[in-house]
UniProtKB/TrEMBL annotation, chain A:
One of its GO terms (biological process) is peptide transport. The lineage of its organism: Bacteria, Bacillati, Actinomycetota, Actinomycetes, Streptosporangiales. Keywords: ATP-binding, Nucleotide-binding, Transport. It comes from Nonomuraea pusilla. Residues 8-245 form the ABC transporter domain. SUPFAM superfamilies: P-loop containing nucleoside triphosphate hydrolases. InterPro entries: AAA+_ATPase, ABC_transp_ATP-bind, ABC_transporter-like_ATP-bd, ABC_transporter-like_CS, Oligopep_ABC_C, P-loop_NTPase. The keyword Transport applies. Belongs to the ABC transporter superfamily. GO terms for molecular function: ATP binding; ATP hydrolysis activity. NCBIfam families: oligo_HPY (TIGR01727). This is Peptide/nickel transport system ATP-binding protein.
UniProtKB/TrEMBL annotation, chain B:
Gene3D superfamilies: P-loop containing nucleotide triphosphate hydrolases. Belongs to the ABC transporter superfamily. It is found in: Cell membrane. This is Peptide/nickel transport system ATP-binding protein. Residues 3-248 form the ABC transporter domain.
C-alpha cells in the first residue's frame, strides 16, 4: 500500500503499555497513517486517546507491539543507548520548560542539532534568525526566555538536524493563546519550506485547521476519520469529529453554549465492544454495538464503503 | 449583592502589577476577564480573596456588600474567604489534595464556616456532588482525586468552591486544562449554577471563545489596566479598543491558513 513517495507510513500500529499488577493498556489499537514530504498532517483527539504514544512510537521512544512504522521505506528502530543513525525524524515536545537543558546556552543546544546533521557551515544564530529570534540570543540560557520564545528555540534545535520529518507533540498547548497560532504557523512554514513533512499533534482543532493539509481524528487508539482539512472542517462525517467540532466555542459574542459530548473517554484497558465510540454516539445503531468498523477513511457504519 | 473593585493597585517588589483596575460583578451574571498572560487577570482574582503573594502592596477598594475586603483583619478575611467568596483554580490535578478523600475536601470548610455536624456536612456534600453531576455521588464521596478524570476533578473543585454557598465565585481559567468536549460540559455547568444560585461569577480566561459562550459582561485587561468593558456582544463584535481588536484578530479563525508566521513574540515578556 506504501506509495513510493510516502515519507512516513504507519500500518496497523498497536502499542501496549504494560505495568505490573495492572491490565495491559492498548494505547494505540491498530492505527494507520501516512505523511508525504512537504505535507502537514494534523492529528487530533481528546487526551488519553493515544496521540502522544503514536508520536513517540514514530520517533522510536515507545516500542511497537504490533504493526509497523516505515520511514522512507525502512522500519523505525527503537531508541537505544547507541548513537542514533536515524536523524531524519526530529521531535518538538510539549513543554518547552522541560525540553531544553536549563544549564546550557541555547546556542550550544542548537549546535548539537547541527552536529547531528554534520553541518559545519551553519551557525546556531542562523537558525535563531529563521525562527524569528535575534541572533545574539544564542549566548543566553533558557530561563531568560518566555514560553513562546523557548518553543521557538526548541523548533530551531529540531530543524538544525535537517529533519525530513518533523513531529510536534502538542507543541503549542503550553503556550499563551496569543503565541499559539504564531508558533504553529512558524512550524508549518519552516517544515514545508525545507521540504519536510510535519506531523502536528494537538487537541486544539482551530489551530490544526489553520496549518494542516490533512486531519486525522483519533479516538481511543484508533483513527476514526482522515481527510483534507477543509473537507473535514466543512463536512465532518464521523459523529465523533462532528461532536469535537461542535464543542469549540465560537468567539462571535453570541452567547451560545457549545454542544456537550456526554460521558468520558472509556478506559483503554477495557474498550467497549463493537465500535469504540458507540456508548457516546448520538446516532448509534445495533450494528455498532456488535461489530467494529474496521475500514477507512471514515471508520463508522454510517459511512461504510460500498 | 455585588462585588465592586475600584482603582485596585497591586505592587510586588517595586513593580506595578495592577495599575488601577475597576470591575463590578452582579449577582446572577458572569463577568469575563480576558487578556494575555502577564496582564494581571489572575492577580485581580487573587486580590479579591486576599491571596496575593507575600510582600504585595495593595491599594484601592474591593467592596463586597458594603464591606471593604482590603480593610478586614486576617481573621475577618478568613470568614469571607471560602465562605462568601470562593475560587476555582486552573488545574484540578493540583488544586485538589491528592491524599485526602473528596468527602474530606468537601466537608472541611463546610464544618468550619457553616458549623455543620458530620452527618449534615456529608449529606450536603453528596447533594453538591449530585448538583455538579458526578455519577454515583455517594461512592464518589469516599474516593480520592486520582480516581477521577480531569473533567470530573474540575467538577469536584467547583463543588468544593460552592460548598459554603458563596455569593461570589472566582473561576481562574477553569477549563484551560480540559479537552474541548469536557470544557463544553464544565461551561454549561458553570452557567447553569450561576443562573440557578444567583452567583456573581468572575471568569478569568484567555480564550475568547469560552468568553463568548458564557460571559454576560466582558472586560479586557492589558498591562494591569482594564482597557475595555462592556456587554459580551458589543465587545466581541465591535471592539472599541485597538487591543481587543488585535486579540480577536490573533485568533486562528481570523487568519488565513498557511500565512507568514514569523512575527515576534509579544514584547515585554522575558525580553531582557
Amino acid at each position: 500500500m506504501t506509495q513510493p513517495n510516502t515519507l512516513l507510513s504507519v500500518n496497523d500500529l498497536v502499542i501496549e503499555h504494560r505495568s505490573p499488577g495492572r491490565p495491559v493498556v492498548r494505547a494505540v489499537a491498530g492505527a494507520s497513517l501516512t505523511v508525504n514530504p512537504g505535507e502537514v498532517v494534523g492529528l487530533v483527539g481528546e487526551s488519553g486517546c493515544g496521540k502522544s504514544t503514536l508520536a513517540r512510537a514514530v520517533c522510536g521512544i515507545n516500542p511497537v507491539t504490533e504493526g509497523s512504522i516505515l520511514f522512507e521505506g525502512t522500519p523505525v528502530t527503537p531508541l537505544g543507548l547507541r548513537r542514533r543513525t536515524l536523524t531524519g525524524i526530529q521531535m518538538v515536545f510539549q513543554d518547552p520548560y522541560a525540553s531544553l537543558n536549563p544549564r546550557r546556552r541555547v546556542g550550544d543546544q542548537i549546535a548539537d542539532g547541527l552536529r547531528t546533521a554534520r553541518d559545519t557551515t551553519s551557525d546556531p544564530a542562523d537558525l535563531l534568525e529563521r525562527v524569528g529570534l535575534p541572533r545574539d540570543f544564542a549566548g543566553r540560557h533558557p530561563h531568560e526566555f518566555s514560553g513562546g520564545q523557548r518553543q521557538r528555540i526548541a523548533i530551531a534545535r529540531a530543524l538544525a538536524a535537517r529533519p525530513r520529518l518533523l513531529i510536534g507533540d502538542e507543541p503549542i498547548s503550553a503556550l499563551d493563546a496569543s503565541a499559539q497560532a504564531q508558533v504553529a504557523t512558524l512550524m508549518r512554514d519552516l517544515a514545508v519550506g525545507s521540504g519536510a513533512g510535519l506531523l502536528f499533534i494537538s487537541h486544539d482543532l482551530s489551530v490544526v485547521r489553520l496549518i494542516a493539509d490533512r486531519i486525522a481524528v483519533m479516538y481511543l487508539g484508533k483513527i476514526v476519520e482522515v481527510g483534507d482539512t477543509a473537507e473535514v472542517w466543512a463536512r465532518p462525517r464521523h459523529p465523533y469529529t462532528r461532536a469535537l467540532l461542535q464543542a469549540i466555542p465560537k468567539p462571535d459574542g453570541g452567547g451560545v453554549l457549545p454542544a456537550e459530548l456526554p460521558g468520558d473517554v472509556p478506559d483503554p484497558a477495557n474498550p467497549p465492544a463493537g465500535c469504540r465510540f458507540h456508548p457516546r454516539c448520538p446516532v448509534a445503531m445495533d450494528v455498532c454495538r456488535v461489530k467494529e468498523p474496521a475500514f477507512g477513511p471514515v471508520a463508522c457504519w454510517l459511512h461504510e464503503p460500498a | 449583592m455585588t462585588l465592586d473593585i475600584t482603582g485596585l493597585k497591586v505592587t510586588i517588589g517595586g513593580k506595578e502589577i495592577l495599575r488601577g483596575v475597576d470591575l463590578s460583578l452582579e449577582a446572577g451574571r458572569v463577568h469575563g476577564l480576558a487578556g494575555e498572560s502577564g496582564s494581571g487577570k489572575t492577580m485581580t482574582g487573587l486580590a479579591v480573596l486576599g491571596l496575593l503573594p507575600h510582600g504585595a502592596r495593595v491599594s484601592g477598594g474591593i467592596s463586597l456588600g458594603g464591606r471593604d475586603l482590603l480593610a478586614l483583619s486576617p481573621k475577618e478575611l478568613n470568614q469571607v474567604r471560602g465562605g462568601e467568596v470562593a475560587m476555582v483554580f486552573q488545574d484540578p490535578a493540583t488544586s485538589l489534595h491528592p491524599m485526602l478523600t473528596i468527602g474530606r475536601q468537601l466537608t472541611e470548610h463546610m464544618r468550619h464556616h457553616l458549623r455543620l455536624g458530620k452527618a449534615e456536612a456529608k449529606a450536603r456534600a453528596v447533594d453538591l456532588l449530585t448538583k455538579v453531576r458526578i455519577p454515583g455521588a455517594e461512592e464518589a464521596y469516599g474516593r480520592f482525586p486520582h480516581q477521577f478524570s480531569g473533567g470530573m476533578r474540575q467538577r469536584i473543585a467547583i463543588a468544593v468552591a460552592l460548598a459554603c454557598s458563596p455569593k461570589v465565585l472566582i473561576a481562574d481559567e477553569p477549563t484551560t486544562a480540559l479537552d474541548v468536549t469536557v470544557q463544553a460540559g464544565v461551561l454549561r455547568l458553570l452557567r447553569g449554577l450561576c443562573d440557578e444560585l444567583g452567583l456573581a461569577v468572575l471568569l478569568v480566561t484567555h480564550d475568547l471563545g469560552v468568553m463568548s459562550a458564557v460571559a454576560d459582561e466582558v472586560s479586557v485587561m492589558k498591562d494591569g489596566l482594564v482597557v475595555e468593558t462592556g456587554p459580551r456582544a458589543r465587545v466581541l463584535r465591535e471592539p472599541s479598543h485597538p487591543y481587543t481588536r488585535a486579540l480577536l484578530d490573533s485568533l486562528p479563525d481570523h487568519q488565513e491558513p498557511a500565512q507568514d508566521g514569523t512575527g515576534r513574540d509579544e514584547p515585554g515578556e522575558g525580553e531582557r
